[in-house]
């Protein structure tokens, strides 16, 4: 049940963020408990008093090394293709990886991806050798474009980042899965509960990226384990083939008029 | 993370049905894979050609013995308190257990429990020494009555049996949990997907009883494992404390105007 | 498009409450604007400083007279069959009507009807000559019982009273409509928006009873008109036959490869 | 309660399509019954045996003249900016109007607008003097772009065209309304029931465009009236100020322990 991203084989289908944890130590424990091997990080990270800049980065590098996984720099907070491309290049240099979670924010209220700027930035970064994982809305045509441009991984949102609203538009998400059967689809942003992640996997998604749902839980380490199990449950459920919904009730115990010990006499 | 039902401690929070499987062998494997230690069975079971009546019962007894668990006879298909009480007494004699999943069906279309007959039957059976697990609707007052009568376990439905519609009315289910904090609450009927079971556990339910969702899956044995994991994920998530939903987006990476390596200079 | 309740023909399918308005004058205007001819009132009404007890009742009688309609006393706040029956008899004497909206509350949190006490009170009141309109939950078996006892009108809830949550469980409500085709079904409690009332009518319900949604609107008089139109829209929609939902998109303009002016050449 | 579109004041907030009706006569009656003054039409219309091409157009022109309204040519079925622009110019010439419902389809399954091609076509057509009403997805950034380009009217979808699924993503639709307070917002595509249209208006939308919901009803003429009323109900409801949803029940009749006639003694 491994996930392959740009040729890398990973043991977990969970991708996890590194922000908003109560402390670096809890972050480390939560990441390790999650089983995730892909950890996102932003260069534009807000400066925590006790752990500013490079220290946090070195700390994270150590954590990722323990997972035997990959650091996934992101361009969170960028509002134009140009800004994102610039930051991406800095990230590549500093973090020594061509993997990139590409975010270009288009609105300050819902913090949604800007579809136009996202396409522009994706084109430039792919041409420059990046392995782009674009964070996008649940717009099929946008996802198709990004895939056609050469992104092997597409990451539509479930709902606005940090809301914990879960899967706002299951119809759109199912349509994307159906129409892009070859793409690696990671559901990104808006996941609130383990059951949300489980549902995404039951739809046939290849993975889930989340941050707040773990970092803001009362117990982030335990919640990380909960998500790890929820993804496995959902994946198993998808492979095992979920029963069809039915409009009318069906007895699980079809009955005859007489109990069996009378029938057998 | 064990579940206690009428003083019995169980290793799994999943209760499972024994009907509708493709074959007895697959049923056995699915039950064992689920980790469940409580298996429901109806005396009024439809007569399968190759495994009629007592044979099936003996087979099931063996399976339950392997789980080190309990057989839970049910009164599926009964339409009156009187009929259910009669069948319950037969079941106790044959299966040598005073545990009983009490079903009294009130309508042929949605196969819902009849609240009035259910209360009548519950009173009589509790007085007669049964340990009653009543299958009921998601009506708080009905659940409260059953609890006040002495049922330690209450089993509201998620949706009509066999529909796989999942949790039709989360508001009602959450209200029951909040108002009956001491009762052992098992969600029963209508579960379709592992994420449904996960969601029930995230709400603080003590367990889930299902049958069709496993038996009618393309691969019942794998689906049984999926549900086992989904329940664990949901329970962990409940204990770990799910984040609050928020109406507006929040960046998981709060950003400053300048990347940290500039800030640090 | 008239509604018949216990032999009375009414011009409106809206039944309206008389509580929570900013002032008696606004209440009067709102009731008149709604077109409703059935106004509910409780004897156990909280005593407004400026309009205590009998004054409010006389005022309401005048309003109802202007609608050429009926006063519908209710037993809001009663918690047992006995209490409700006593209050019903007082109401009949004072208000000179055998119509009764029967409420027996079973829980202080969700203020839901108590199905057991409701049946007991219904039996006694029908036997005593009352024309009972029972407020009940969306439980099909309970609705069927009340209908079988002789209630010509059944009033299931949409959601808990005063929440404005709208139709919590459309499946249950649709099932009740389908299974009780002869009963007059009024959706009662929980309506928040005109679209909720419209949806109820599209399902084939015979009417809607509401109070908070009008009384707590910024402009109760205008909201009363909005609901009057919404009910008419929903009823027309039901009679006109709503299109089937479809899973896949269908062009409303099926196109050929060439525009028609080329086709016609 | 009039609607202004590109300076034209209209008496109805409903825009209606001219396809899929059982007959031209029923189409005419339905349009007149709807009260709509804006009727969409496609040059690429499928050729009905009895009413091919120009005949249908002349017939529609007559109907629109009777409404004292406007014909709104659309580019349904176009799959690229280029194709849409070409068709738009033909439409302007033939129908003698610079109004245009701009559709550029991006996927054959969900028939959704292509956000990229849509922007390209919008730019060209606005520059060429068209009054563009773009049909788009419920993507806030896309809507913002179209508005910034100079479209006074924006028409996001409710759900895929012809599905009748109603408002798939209320969160997105509410966000667009909140973030674009000055734009004229018309909900377009996916409307199935009058209550869907009512809900859109309650959200503060300025109008609704639909076709299948009326044309495919059992009785299109009656359904047209139903929608006309539903829009008015929703608009009134929006202006009147819908009550806040509440999580817990609130009695509409707050009660004291004693009835008022005792209190007054």
TrEMBL record, chains A, B, C, D:
Q: What does this protein do?
A: Catalyzes the rearrangement of 1-deoxy-D-xylulose 5-phosphate (DXP) to produce the thiazole phosphate moiety of thiamine. Sulfur is provided by the thiocarboxylate moiety of the carrier protein ThiS. In vitro, sulfur can be provided by H(2)S.
The molecular function terms of the Gene Ontology recorded here are: thiazole synthase activity
Q: How does it assemble?
A: Homotetramer. Forms heterodimers with either ThiH or ThiS.
Q: Which residues form the active site?
A: 101 (schiff-base intermediate with dxp)
**EC numbers, comma separated:** 2.8.1.10
Q: What is its main location?
A: cytoplasm
Pathway(s) per entry: Cofactor biosynthesis; thiamine diphosphate biosynthesis
Q: What is this protein called?
A: Thiazole synthase
Query: Which Gene Ontology cellular component terms are annotated?
Result: cytoplasm
Q: Which reaction does it catalyse?
A: [ThiS sulfur-carrier protein]-C-terminal-Gly-aminoethanethioate + 2-iminoacetate + 1-deoxy-D-xylulose 5-phosphate = [ThiS sulfur-carrier protein]-C-terminal Gly-Gly + 2-[(2R,5Z)-2-carboxy-4-methylthiazol-5(2H)-ylidene]ethyl phosphate + 2 H2O + H(+)
Q: Subcellular location, in the record's words?
A: Cytoplasm
Gene name tied to this protein? thiG
User: Which HAMAP family does the record match to this protein?
Assistant: ThiG
Matching InterPro entries: Aldolase_TIM (IPR013785), Thiazole_synthase_ThiG (IPR033983), ThiG (IPR008867)
Q: Which organism is it from?
A: Litorilituus sediminis
A biological process from GO: thiamine diphosphate biosynthetic process
**Residue ranges of the Thiazole synthase ThiG domain?**
4-254
Which residues of the sequence carry a binding annotation for 1-deoxy-D-xylulose 5-phosphate? Answer: 162, 189-190, 211-212
């Amino acid at each position: 049940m491994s996930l392959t991203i740009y040729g890398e084989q990973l043991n977990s289908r969970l991708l996890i963020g590194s922000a908003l944890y109560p402390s670096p130590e809890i972050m480390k424990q939560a990441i390790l408990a999650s089983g995730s091997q892909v950890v996102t990080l932003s260069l534009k990270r807000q400066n925590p008093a006790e752990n500013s800049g490079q220290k946090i980065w070195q700390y994270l590098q150590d954590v990722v090394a323990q997972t035997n996984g990959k650091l996934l720099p992101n361009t969170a907070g960028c509002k134009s293709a140009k800004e994102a491309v610039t930051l991406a290049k800095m990230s590549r240099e500093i973090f020594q990886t061509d993997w990139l979670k590409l975010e270009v924010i288009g609105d300050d209220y819902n913090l949604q991806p800007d579809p136009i700027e996202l396409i522009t930035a994706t084109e430039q970064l792919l041409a420059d050798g990046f392995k782009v994982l674009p964070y996008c809305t649940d717009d099929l045509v946008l996802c198709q474009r990004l895939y056609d441009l050469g992104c092997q991984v597409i990451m539509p949102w479930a709902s606005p980042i940090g809301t914990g609203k879960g899967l706002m538009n299951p119809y759109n998400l199912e349509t994307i899965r159906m129409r892009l059967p070859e793409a690696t689809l990671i559901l990104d942003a808006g996941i609130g509960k383990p059951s949300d992640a489980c549902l995404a996997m039951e739809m046939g998604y290849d993975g889930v990226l989340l941050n707040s749902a773990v970092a803001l839980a009362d117990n982030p380490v335990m919640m990380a384990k909960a998500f790890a199990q929820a993804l496995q449950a959902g994946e198993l459920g998808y492979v095992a083939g979920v029963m069809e919904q039915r409009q009318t009730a069906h007895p699980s115990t079809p009955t005859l008029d007489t109990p069996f010990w009378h029938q057998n006499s």
